[in-house]
């Protein structure tokens, strides 16, 4: 199949950036989206052009490094799918595909489709952990955890930190990301001692980074490759409120 | 390339005495660093996977001044995150007869008697602490209704000792280590450098004293000095271009260290995983693993007749060859990884492979669906079937899956002693980057165990013994720093100046194909000699004809890739030298000349019961042998018939 790509090119954070049109031919339907871009880049290199920069690593949907807005949707229109797991068979021959980076003030563009998501790391630094130095842990069976709680904690913990939720949110909110961690740790007995301070610190860090507030539009959960539900945000708000009243 | 034989390695620093007391002995012997002095000591940790992330966090907790580096945009992205199956630990929560000794025994035997007993025993001992640590961090392992941890048996083990978090155990354990690391970053004990790639090791006064890194965003070449350097940079499976590794995984850090004096242990020991999704075309950029658990219910087959291109459903039962069940009636579809992989290769070599290019075999669930019902199969394997369909566009409930072996893990790596210290004083190597513990074949669910054992428990103890002597290290010689920096900038300039007609990726693909064909699942003297002829020619062409666009400043992903490919070329040659010299079959290393009448791997314990530790030299590699002694586990031949 043949495609027309409109790709966001931006040389650095201070460059204004623009859409550039490329034709790609003989695309196999079995290619992944990133493999299609690899083919374009190989050609650009040989033609003496600057290849399109994009982040990627595991290419199996778990590291969270890849991510681009494809035809206006974070990670593309395929539900519960990272960009690396999106395949070309979902596109029509002859189609025009627009490709843009995550757009949010706290995620400045580094180059082309690469953005700086270090704000997410700083949100985790604020409290997304259990303070337990190596060697100090009691036996793993010392505290039983109800299966339902462990399963629900796992569901929240599957967040891959890709940032699609922020890119999709009209407010540029990181609520789903922070809420996933607050939910994961808050559901487990091991997470209780720091539950209040965690919720407070992570929410404050989100604000400090310049992420917007949540207005329940639900775009985040619609694009989340791991399907983290919106309930997590309700739990975060409850924990935040709880921390303010204790 | 010819090699010479140097002095054998006589002392691995493992204490004497009964094996169960050795780690305690070492811990007591190890000198301690005064808490007030720890913050004056700097440790560099390169890589933030299970080993590097847990090590950096733990060293920070102990009060050292830690500098951590990763090439990704966040330490949470390291490829440990992709591990699916689980983590072994000798907890014996099931009361099914497991013990530290049994895990030790299984690991030594599974490694086909090419691992060091003392190290493996310690790994089994420490395994139980890992689970405690992870649970305390909030890792959401699978649990039973009573609230206790669930386990499963994995990779042919006869006890149920594998702890898991659905099919994402690596992710959950890595996030545990990542969160511990972020806590230390917030506390100021760890200084984190993301999007920084190590390109050279600084050795001064005979000790590892720092690294030269490239800031991948600005292109700036930076020097970081320290009292000790820890490499936790993972395996080198991407030498084959196509593997289940992440795209960025590379050998540069360990290869640079090797060229500065760190011996490389058993480079030819590569693990090839039998159940991966086959290559679909020339553009293929990586391979995806499908969990081994699929072989519990799927039946592996190919057409009986060569070149039979009928759809699988049109091939009648009596024209199919369920070859694993036929050759290995006792274990059937559940034979170990190396055996299943080689059998698939053999039937494809006979021209009976299926799918594009004939490089695939069927993994058929029709019988399982008929026996258990579609719903039961969906419950067990639903997410894997979905993943398969996403990638291939085929529905495995209706047509059999197609699978093929792929490079998955490298047992080889930098040689380390019992303290995880390389042959360069002050250079420690942990996780997949070192050679220890797995011998010639790693068992399922043991990679996570080793990475975390090294990072949380072993290294933080042993490195203290080295750092206690830091007072006498002296200053780093400026000339050594300048020389290391010049080596980095010189290579970058050279790569950018060639301006040839082929991309780095095209060279990497060709090298990978060559390694797969000549130094892959089956190796012969002839194939390896051919590889050793072809690799230097291709490398020469690379340095004369590669095209790397752009300039050294700023983000330049093509430049990053070219540098990694250049190092893969050199490593590939050493792998072939090692594979050629090891004239026996063991674990993942199958030399066609060394097989029994039934075509099974034949070890040669009289001549090869040693670790091959290779020293780099401009005149060709020098082999140092570390003889392996088995005091506890009796050497025996594996059999799965």
From TrEMBL, chain A:
The protein's enzyme class: oxidoreductase
UniProt-listed PROSITE patterns: 2FE2S_FER_1 (PS00197), 2FE2S_FER_2 (PS51085), 4FE4S_FER_1 (PS00198), 4FE4S_FER_2 (PS51379)
Protein name: Fumarate reductase iron-sulfur subunit
Co-factor binding comment: Binds 1 [2Fe-2S] cluster. Binds 1 [3Fe-4S] cluster.
Domain 4Fe-4S ferredoxin-type: 150-179
Keywords: 2Fe-2S, 3Fe-4S, 4Fe-4S, Iron, Iron-sulfur, Metal-binding, Oxidoreductase, Tricarboxylic acid cycle
Gene Ontology biological process terms, A to Z: respiratory electron transport chain; tricarboxylic acid cycle
Stretches assigned to the 2Fe-2S ferredoxin-type domain: 18-103
Superkingdom field: Bacteria
TrEMBL record, chain B:
Topology of the protein relative to the lipid bilayer: Peripheral membrane protein
Localization per record: Cell membrane
Reactions catalysed, as given in the entry: a quinone + succinate = fumarate + a quinol
Cofactor needs: FAD
Gene Ontology BP terms: anaerobic respiration
Active site: 337 (proton acceptor)
Pfam families: FAD_binding_2, Succ_DH_flav_C
Signal peptide: none
Domain FAD-dependent oxidoreductase 2 FAD-binding span(s) in chain numbering: 43-448
Gene Ontology, cellular component aspect: plasma membrane
Cell membrane in keyword set: yes
EC number annotated for this UniProt entry: 1.3.5.1
Key word Iron present: no
The protein's enzyme class: oxidoreductase
Domain named Fumarate reductase/succinate dehydrogenase flavoprotein-like C-terminal: residues: 508-640
Alphabetized GO MF terms: electron transfer activity; flavin adenine dinucleotide binding; steroid dehydrogenase activity, acting on the CH-CH group of donors; succinate dehydrogenase (quinone) activity
Keyword vocabulary terms for this entry: Cell membrane, Electron transport, FAD, Flavoprotein, Membrane, Oxidoreductase, Transport
Family note: Belongs to the FAD-dependent oxidoreductase 2 family. FRD/SDH subfamily.
Protein name: succinate dehydrogenase
Taxonomic source organism: Microbispora oryzae
């Amino acid at each position: 199949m043949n495609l027309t790509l409109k790709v966001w090119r931006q040389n650095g954070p201070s460059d204004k950036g623009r859409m550039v049109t490329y034709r790609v031919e003989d695309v196999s339907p079995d290619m992944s989206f990133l493999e299609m871009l690899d083919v374009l880049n190989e050609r650009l290199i040989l033609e003496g052009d600057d290849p399109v920069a994009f982040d990627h690593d595991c290419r199996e949907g778990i590291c969270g490094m890849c991510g681009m807005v494809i035809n206006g949707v974070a990670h593309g229109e395929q539900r519960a799918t990272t960009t690396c797991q999106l395949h070309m068979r979902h596109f029509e021959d002859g189609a025009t595909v627009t490709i843009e980076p995550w757009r949010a003030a706290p995620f400045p563009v580094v180059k082309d489709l690469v953005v700086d998501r270090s704000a997410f790391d700083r949100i985790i630094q604020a409290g997304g952990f259990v303070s337990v130095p190596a060697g100090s842990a009691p036996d793993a069976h010392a505290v039983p955890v109800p299966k339902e709680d462990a399963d629900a904690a796992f569901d929240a913990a599957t967040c891959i930190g890709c940032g699609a939720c922020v890119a999709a949110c009209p407010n540029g909110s990181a609520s789903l990301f922070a809420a996933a961690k607050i939910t994961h740790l808050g559901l487990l007995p091991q997470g209780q001692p720091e539950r209040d301070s965690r919720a407070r610190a992570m929410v404050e860090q989100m604000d400090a980074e310049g992420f917007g507030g949540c207005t329940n539009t639900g775009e985040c959960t619609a694009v989340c490759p791991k399907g983290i539900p919106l309930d997590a945000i309700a739990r975060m708000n409850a924990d935040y409120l709880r921390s303010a009243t204790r | 390339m010819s090699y010479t034989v140097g002095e054998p390695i006589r002392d691995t620093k493992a204490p004497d005495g009964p094996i169960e007391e050795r780690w305690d002995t070492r811990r007591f012997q190890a000198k301690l660093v005064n808490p007030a002095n720890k913050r004056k000591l700097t440790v560099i940790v390169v890589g933030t996977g299970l080993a590097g992330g847990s090590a950096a966090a733990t060293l920070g907790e102990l009060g050292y001044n830690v500098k951590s580096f990763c090439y990704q945009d966040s330490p949470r992205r390291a490829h440990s995150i992709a591990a699916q199956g689980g983590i072994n630990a000798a907890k014996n929560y099931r009361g099914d007869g497991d013990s530290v000794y049994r895990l030790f025994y299984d690991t030594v035997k599974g490694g086909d008697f090419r691992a060091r007993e003392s190290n493996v025993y310690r790994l089994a001992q420490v395994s139980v602490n890992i689970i405690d640590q992870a649970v305390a961090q909030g890792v959401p392992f699978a649990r039973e209704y009573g609230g206790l941890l669930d386990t499963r048996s994995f990779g042919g083990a006869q006890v149920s000792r594998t702890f898991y978090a659905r099919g994402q155990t690596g992710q959950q354990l890595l996030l545990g280590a990542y969160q511990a690391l972020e806590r230390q970053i917030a506390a100021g004990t760890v200084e984190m450098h993301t999007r920084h790639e190590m390109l050279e090791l600084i050795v001064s006064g005979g000790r590892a004293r720092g690294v030269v890194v490239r800031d991948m965003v600005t292109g700036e070449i930076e020097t970081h000095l320290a009292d000790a350097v820890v490499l936790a940079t993972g395996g080198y499976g991407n030498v084959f271009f196509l593997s289940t590794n992440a795209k960025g995984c590379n050998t540069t850090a360990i290869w640079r260290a090797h060229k500065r004096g760190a011996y490389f242990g058993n480079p030819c020991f590569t693990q090839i995983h039998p159940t991966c999704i086959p290559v679909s075309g020339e553009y293929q950029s990586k391979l995806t693993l499908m969990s081994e658990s699929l072989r519990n219910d799927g039946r592996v087959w190919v057409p009986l007749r060569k070149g039979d291109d009928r759809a699988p459903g049109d091939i009648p039962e009596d024209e199919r060859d369920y070859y694993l069940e036929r050759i290995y009636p006792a274990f059937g579809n559940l034979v170990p990884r190396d055996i299943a992989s080689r059998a698939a290769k053999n039937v494809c070599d006979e021209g009976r492979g299926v799918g594009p290019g004939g490089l695939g075999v069927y993994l058929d669930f029709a019988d399982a669906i008929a026996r258990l019902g579609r719903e039961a199969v969906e419950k067990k394997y639903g997410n894997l079937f979905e993943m398969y369909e996403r990638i291939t566009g085929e529905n495995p409930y209706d047509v059999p899956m197609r699978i093929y072996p792929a490079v998955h893990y490298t047992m080889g790596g930098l040689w380390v002693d019992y303290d995880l210290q390389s042959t360069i004083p002050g250079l420690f190597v942990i996780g997949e980057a070192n050679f220890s513990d797995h011998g010639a074949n790693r068992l399922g669910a043991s990679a996570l165990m080793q990475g975390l054992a090294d990072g949380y428990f072993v290294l933080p103890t042993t490195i203290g013994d080295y750092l206690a002597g830091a007072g006498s290290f002296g200053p780093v010689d400026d000339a050594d720093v300048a020389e290391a920096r010049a080596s980095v900038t010189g290579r970058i300039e050279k790569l950018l100046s060639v301006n040839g007609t082929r991309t780095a990726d095209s060279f990497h693909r060709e090298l990978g194909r060559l390694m797969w064909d000549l130094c892959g699942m089956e190796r012969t003297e002839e194939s390896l000699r051919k590889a050793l002829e072809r690799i230097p020619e291709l490398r020469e062409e690379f340095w004369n004809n590669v095209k790397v666009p752009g300039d050294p400043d700023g983000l330049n992903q093509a430049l990053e890739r070219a540098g990694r490919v250049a190092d893969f070329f050199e490593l590939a040659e050493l792998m072939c030298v090692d594979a050629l010299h090891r004239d026996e079959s063991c674990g993942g290393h199958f030399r066609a000349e060394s097989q029994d009448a039934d075509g099974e791997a034949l070890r040669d314990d009289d001549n090869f019961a040693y670790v091959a530790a290779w020293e780099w030299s401009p005149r060709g590699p020098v082999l140092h042998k570390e003889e392996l002694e088995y005091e506890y586990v009796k050497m025996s031949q594996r059999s799965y018939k």
